[in-house]
Amino acid sequence: MAAAPELNVGQKLNEGKTKQIFELPDQPGLVLVQSMDQITAGNAVRKDQMEGKAAIANRTTSSVFKLLQESGIKTAFVKQHSDTAFVAARCEMIPIEWVCRRVATGSFLKRNPGVKEGYRFSPLKMEMFFKDDANNDPQWSEEQLLAAKFSLAGLAIGQCEVDVMNRSTVAIFEILEKSWATQSCTLVDMKIEFGVNVTTQEIVLADVIDNDSWRLWPAGDRSQQKDKQVYRDLKEVTPEAMQVVKRNFEWVSERVKLLLERQASGRVVVLMGSTSDLAHCEKIRKACTSYGIPCILRVTSAHKGPDETLRIKAEYEGDSVSTVFVAVAGRSNGLGPVMSGNTAYPVINCPPLTPDWGAQDVWSSLRMPSGLGCSTILSPEAAAQFAAQIFGLTDHLVWSRLRASMLNTWVSLKLADQKLQACSL
C-alpha cells in the first residue's frame, strides 16, 4: 500500500504472541495494532518466525473488519495504517475467546468422544474459553463468566453483556460463512474476542480476525485446509514446510479481499403513479441505499398510460440486471397488477394509503386476479427490506447487511430493556 502517514507512536500497552499494541498520544481513544512475523501453536509451545506473516495477517484482518463494518457490525477497527499495522479504538479486552463451530473437528472431538469428525452443527455450537495461558485456556461455562464479575472500562459484564456477545458471535460467524461460500470455502469454526471501547463503553468486536482465527476448508475438504492447522499438524518444522504454510496464508489473504466484492448486481425500480407519492418513494430509496442496493424512481400510470408503463418495464428487462419492481400507487392500484401480469421479475405493491379512503383502496393491492403474484407491503422501509431479502439470496453483501441489521435490532431491544429495568429498581 502507499506510504503511511507518520504517527506519533507512544508506549507499548500490551504484547501478545503475534501482535503489539501501542498508544497514540495525539489521538486519544485510539491505538496502533502492530502485527509480528511470529506464528505459534499450543499457547506458544511451538513458535517460529515466518517472514512476511505480519503483512499477510494485517491484510487479512483489515479486509475482514472492513467487510464486517460495511455490513453494520460494530468493531474496534478504524483503518489500515501500513502493511503491518492498523489503527483501532482503544478497548479493555474481555478475557474470553468465543468459539463458534459449524463442523465438529479439532479439540471438540477430544473433549466430546464419540462425536464423529464432520458432524454439522445446526444451530451453531457456541463455546467460550478463559484466556489463561498458564492453564491452557480452560473452557468456561456461562455461569463461570457471570461469576467472574468482570468490570472493564466502567462496564460490568453481566447477563445482558454476555447475551450480546453470544448473539454477536453467531451473526459474525454467519456473515463470514456466507462470504467464504462465494469462494467455495467452508468456514469450519472461528474464535473471536470482544472488548469494551474505553470512549463509548460499548462492547465491540476487537483484537484481530486472521488466518490464526479460523479453520477454512476449500470445497469442504479438510485435506485442502488453508488455515493455521497446517502449521499445528507439522511433525517437523522445516524451511520447506514453512513455505507451504506461508503460501496458504498468502492464498487466504488474497481470497479474503474478494469477499468485499459484489458477486451479483441488482436494482430496485420504484414506479409511482404521481409525483405526489415522491416522499413515500424516497423512503424506499433511502432504505434500499442502506442495504447497498441501487434504487431508481420513475413516474408512470398503468391506468392513464399503460403503453408507457410497459415500455419502462421493457427498458429494465432488456439489460439482464436483476430487478425488483415496487409499485407505488394510491387510490386504485393498477401499477402492481399490470406489472405483475407482464413481467417475470418480482413486483411489490407499496401503496401510500391515506386516512380517509385507505381501508378501501388497499383492496386493489390485495385482491389480485389469478396468475398474478405481486406481494403487498404497506411500509416503505419494509418493502425495501423485502427487496433486499430477494437480492440477498444471491448477493452475500446484501445478505450480510440484513443479518447485521437483525443483530443490531436485537441488541438495541436488549439494551433498552436493561436500561428500563435499571430505572425501575
From TrEMBL:
Pfam families to which the protein is assigned, alphabetical: AIRC, SAICAR_synt
Annotated PurE domain residues: 266-413
CDD domains associated with the record: SAICAR_synt_Ade5
Highest taxon of the lineage: Eukaryota
Biological processes per GO annotation: 'de novo' IMP biosynthetic process
Pathway: Purine metabolism; IMP biosynthesis via de novo pathway; 5-amino-1-(5-phospho-D-ribosyl)imidazole-4-carboxamide from 5-amino-1-(5-phospho-D-ribosyl)imidazole-4-carboxylate: step 1/2; Purine metabolism; IMP biosynthesis via de novo pathway; 5-amino-1-(5-phospho-D-ribosyl)imidazole-4-carboxylate from 5-amino-1-(5-phospho-D-ribosyl)imidazole (carboxylase route): step 1/1
Keyword Aminoacyl-tRNA synthetase part of the UniProt annotation: no
InterPro entries assigned: PurE_classII, PurE_dom, SAICAR_synt/ADE2_N, SAICAR_synthetase, SAICAR_synthetase_CS
HAMAP family per record: PurE_classII (MF_02045), SAICAR_synth (MF_00137)
Self-association state and partner proteins as the record states: Homooctamer.
Name under which the protein is recorded: PurE domain-containing protein
Organism (species): Cyclopterus lumpus (Lumpsucker)
